[in-house]
Amino acid sequence: MHKINLFIILSLLFVFSYCGTKSDAKQGLEADQYSTESSLGDVNRDKVYWGNIANGMSRSLVNHFWGANFEGYEGRYYFNYGSDLSNMTTNHYWPQAHAMDVIVDSYKRNSDQFYLDYYPLWWEGAPKYNFSGRDEDAWWNVFVDDMEWIVLAQLRMYESTEKEVYFAKAQQMYNDWIWPAWGPESEEPWFGGITWKTDVEKTKNACSNGPAAIVAARIYSMYDQIDNPGEKPKQEYLDEAVKIYSWLKENLYDPTEGKVFDNMNGKGEISPAVYTYNQGTFIGAAHELYKITGDRQYLEDAITASNYVIDHMSTNNGVLANSTSGDGGLFNGIFFRYFVSLVNEPDLDSATHEKFHNYITKSATVMVENGLNQKTMLFGGDWWHAPGENEPVALTPMLSGCMLAEAMCILKPLKD
């Protein structure tokens, strides 16, 4: 197909986006209408192009993973762990937050009722299939970080609809379950920090502290928009965000290289493992605090942590490691979610902005040209090889691909 014809078709698909009904939300929609042919390298990649890639992938996410799409599972308002019923394991709470984040991304971008219809369905299904939930409140989970991911999604649901029920639940979960996992500050060897999991020997992890700092900062930023924000003063949320971030930076961050270590155990030992999602939430927390306080050190921290990912973790021919299943399938997408916000930060110097902009653009281009099945619009987490048309794909890498595509839709142009 000639370049100009393909571009026109993509443009028309973007303009005439589908608006679904509630029944459509339960049935899903074939992603083929958004798929492209193999001549992607010839396409002028503008907002229309990336919008169609993101549309195709988000529709494919719904079509292949939303449980209620499949006969016999009509009430399963939940994203399955594998495509097309290939993995029906149900006790996977935290990916639900990231799947909903993609739905929110798509709704914010398109204002399409198709995506909005999933809000109440997910709101019903996510706690229902949380098998670690308590009888008195099904949203609770033994993994504190899992609740943090859910809260971040709830805050974005509020942000995109202004329905305070979403904010209220997020605030309650933070006040009652997340912040109480802090400290105590007199307890050795941690002297603070948010606990990772409440039913095992205590550890303080990057994955429970970075997201918690983001949650507290965002509640602070949204506080004045809420009619009844409760008795807890607004300033306490900022104080807690700073405290959590400061603990994370002091204990699990290498300021020289910019890497974020995974956890500190009860002996005070620091795990040397470095994961992209921890880099991402550290970047996200630092950037949130920079936007609130204007303290330049937060921005410098975010830049240093980003440079570590680009310079030391992108060893797969210039992109991140393949990650095709399990929790790790989500790690890269979480990084890109917070990284793109930093790339768009107007206070970045031109050289840093160009480096970061080129990096995320290259990553997305490699994914689309090599790792994305152009018919099914499924991404399996291998940057350089697309899944076969009938090959099962795991939810977590698919979400990472969706998040990267959505990131490209909000990426601002290079500075002049």
From TrEMBL:
| Biological process (GO), any one | carbohydrate metabolic process
Fetch the InterPro entries from UniProt.
Answer: 6-hairpin_glycosidase_sf (IPR008928), Glyco_hydro_76 (IPR005198), MUG_Protein (IPR053169), O_gly_hydro (IPR014512)
From the Swiss-Prot or TrEMBL record, give the protein name: Alpha-1,6-mannanase
Query: What Gene3D superfamilies does the record tag this protein with?
Result: 1.50.10.20
